[in-house]
Amino acid sequence: MVVGESGLGKSTLINSLFLTDLYPERIIPGAAEKIERTVQIEASTVEIEERGVKLRLTVVDTPGYGDAINCRDCFKTIISYIDEQFERYLHDESGLNRRHIIDNRVHCCFYFISPFGHGLKPLDVAFMKAIHNKVNIVPVIAKADTLTLKERERLKKRILDEIEEHNIKIYHLPDAESDEDEDFKEQTRLLKASIPFSVVGSNQLIEAKGKKVRGRLYPWGVVEVENPEHNDFLKLRTMLITHMQDLQEVTQDLHYENFRSERLKRGGRKVENEDMNKDQILLEKEAELRRMQEMIARMQAQMQMQMQGGDSDSGTLGHHKMLLDKKKSIPDKCCSIKFLNTLGSVTVGIEVPVSEDFSFVLFFFL
Amino acid sequence: MDERRSPSPCSSRPSSPMTPPCEMLGSVGIEAVLDQLRIKAMKTGFEFNIMVVGQSGLGKSTMVNTLFKSKVWQSSLPNLEVPMPQTLELHSMTHVIEEKGLKLKLTVTDTPGFGDQINNDKCWDPILSYINKQYEQYLQEELLITRQRHIPDTRVHCCVYFVPPTGHCLRPLDIEFLRRLCRTVNVVPVIARADSLTIEERDAFRSRIQQNLKTHCIDVYPQKCFDEDINDRLLNSKIREQIPFAVVGADREHLVNGRCVLGRKTKWGIIEVENMAHCEFLLLRDLLIRSHLQDLKDITHNVHYENYRVLRLNESHQLPRGPGWVNLAPASPGQLMSPGPVKARKRANKDSREDEC
Predict the structure, then answer these.
(1) Across the interface, do A31 and B215 touch by the CB < 8 Å criterion?
(2) Mind listing the domains of chain A with CATH numbers?
(3) Which of residues 83-122 of A touch B (CB under 8 A)?
(4) How far apart are CA B256 and CA B304, in angstroms?
(5) Of B57, B117, B174, which has the smallest distance from its Cβ to A118's Cβ?
(6) Does the interface ipTM go beyond 0.85?
(7) Which residue in A has a C-alpha nearest to residue B167's C-alpha?
(8) pTM, whole model, 2 decimals?
(9) In chain B, what are the domains?
(10) Å from B338 to nearest chain A CA?
(11) At B285, is the secondary structure helix, strand, or coil?
(12) Helix A233-242 and helix A10-18: axis angle, to 10°?
């Protein structure tokens, strides 16, 4: 999931990370539309395959976050989305068919921090505190090419201090095992030291120093996306790839279990709820059946009255009535009426109830 | 349309178009008036009040320092112990800058805390009331029976609004603020921290902002309706095409090709502030200081201040509006915030105030 104010380069970064174009026909809404909008959730799923390994990637975008003048409610939508995914997983897990559960839970949330501030904004702090128990937060400093090196260091330190001050739990990389090789340990150490990552995203190929690189072309130079001296894009990508499994595990073991225990404690017992739902559906179906039967009874009464009125047709009608009685037990939405017409062939009619008193009967001549 | 009366010391009313020009037989030496003006101006000096508005971290303080090439404003990062200001506070600092014997009394008003909260509703109210308070002070001074010779002018002549470089379009907060303020003060929007946008992104952003401004009928400085003659119009339309300027501020100097320039040094290059190919800081500086400083003051005095004055005099309308002094009732804040029906003739170009300020 990517969360952040508009214009921080979230979509560009996702495209750069996964080397795809997730938003081919993107229309950025104008200012007038932005005034009306509330936060929306847009989930797009792509399947990426590399060397036989398939990855089903779902990116959840949150356009409209931080746009409004009053942003007090902007994270309610997001929190309810996260909860909804947990809820669905819980439901599937408690169901009968557990082999094909699709895991739509949010494994990782990239929170984009604006490089223009002096640290975290009140909105950032409030949002992170609201979701740090539900999802792994990876803070990212967006548009890092506006910062000089010193400014970047200062900002990173500021952010880390503020995160600690407000007791926000961000995702921490697990320490390398002692039996891993030195390179990996060194890499992990470097990664840990660079949080929050300051990134620049781009999918444009620029010519620089004779080779084509992905980057941004400015009049004063070229910012290369994959140059570790320019920004931390490579580090972010490494972290994501090597720790994808760990992110999923932490989501399952920590956040999901938290949610589950909260949910089960809070809402009574979840299993009972399910049964109640099924009972409800059964009751509804029975009520419908009863209605159909009443309708048929009414029709019967009508026919009887007609019969009393005209005896000439009694034969057919009587036959009709008998068949109707027989067919009463069919609990379908339409009753089929079969009777012998005067010609002696079988006619099947399907009675489609249109309203309480009136039914439409389709005849099929066999 | 309101006629602009120039506040030059020699004429107190506009020159009538009916006065026929007189033929001169020789040179009399009228140009000496210009020298007299110069000497007088050198003695009294100039005043200029500028207000910078924008979210924190957009480089407002650095921009002011760069504009006036001095440490007018000590840009300091707020400490961790000092919490972010919960409400909007306004800080004013006055400096006297001297160049070639000419003194400029510069007052910079900063607005930390603007747009930083979670709920930014009505965050423009403190700014509006500050501007109106300055007008009120001037009005009170003007209405005194024995006035000072030179009324200290604390009215805000120009408000520079910093738009964050999202690259998309104006945010709802920007639009609300600009809409309200462009009726009270000269507003110059600029794209802050423009070194995060490439040239194409910058142009696209600029055209979107211009569209937004047009759609919402926001009239920023230089206002089209105040162009006096064809020269003004040409000059101002060129400026209008390039509003908002994409600026970068810097107060450190670096060595580039042997020259010492103001700029920001990064791993991939040095962004020169005064290089037109890099950013449009020079345009902003020329607009504010070199070409339109007096114009900004004139419009503030003749249009914005006059509008305020008419509004206030109408509110206390017990006495007929004639020459002489009027005894004004002190303004209550509520009256100013939501003006009642206003005489429309002087406001043909300004849009009506049916929505509340």
Answers:
(1) yes
(2) 2-199+231-268 (3.40.50.300)
(3) 114-118, 121-122
(4) 44
(5) B57
(6) no
(7) A7
(8) 0.72
(9) 35-77+85-314 (3.40.50.300)
(10) 21
(11) helix
(12) 60
